[in-house]
């Protein structure tokens, strides 16, 4: 009986130590996580959530971020989206298309006072810069607004 207790204790200790070591092996040291972000490291299109919002704001210090407040049920949002993506590709990712679903992220919509969608906001250096583009009245006015980022 004593041998079983000893074997069980050894097994439990191994499992505890193995479990404690696994997270340390899974994540790199903090120093490597604090690397500087370059424009090449930033994605061209991203879905914004409460979890990654601060990261997206950091990117706006490197290149403009267009916050696109949208919803899956919004007809005009769906009409505008292919043009936004096309222009982002044509501009070689000179700006980040940051999509914010207002149904999933109502706090972000409130933070910016968004009352109607689609709504595009130009974010540079962590703050709103320039005018907003609210609604979709065709690709020409959208292209003009994006040219002025």
From TrEMBL:
Keywords: Signal. SUPFAM superfamilies: Thioredoxin-like (SSF52833). Pfam families: Thioredoxin. The keyword Signal applies. Residues 1-26 form the signal peptide. Transmembrane segments: none annotated. One of its GO terms (biological process) is cell redox homeostasis. Residues 16-149 form the Thioredoxin domain. It comes from the Bacteria. InterPro entries: Thioredoxin-like_sf (IPR036249), Thioredoxin_domain (IPR013766). This is Thioredoxin C-1. It comes from Streptomyces rubrolavendulae.
């Amino acid at each position: 009986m004593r041998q079983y207790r000893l074997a069980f204790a050894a097994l439990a200790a191994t499992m505890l130590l193995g479990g404690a070591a696994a997270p340390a092996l899974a994540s790199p040291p903090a120093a490597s996580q604090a690397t500087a972000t370059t424009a090449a490291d930033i994605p061209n299109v991203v879905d914004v959530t409460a979890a990654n919002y601060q990261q997206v704001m950091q990117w706006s210090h490197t290149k403009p971020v267009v916050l696109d407040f949208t919803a899956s049920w919004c007809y005009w949002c769906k009409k505008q989206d292919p043009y936004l993506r096309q222009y982002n590709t044509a501009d070689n990712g000179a700006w980040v298309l940051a999509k914010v679903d207002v149904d999933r992220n109502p706090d972000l919509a409130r933070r910016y006072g968004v009352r109607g969608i689609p709504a595009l906001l130009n974010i540079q250096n962590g703050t709103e810069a320039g005018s907003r583009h609210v609604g979709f009245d065709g690709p020409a006015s959208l292209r003009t607004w994006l040219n002025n980022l």
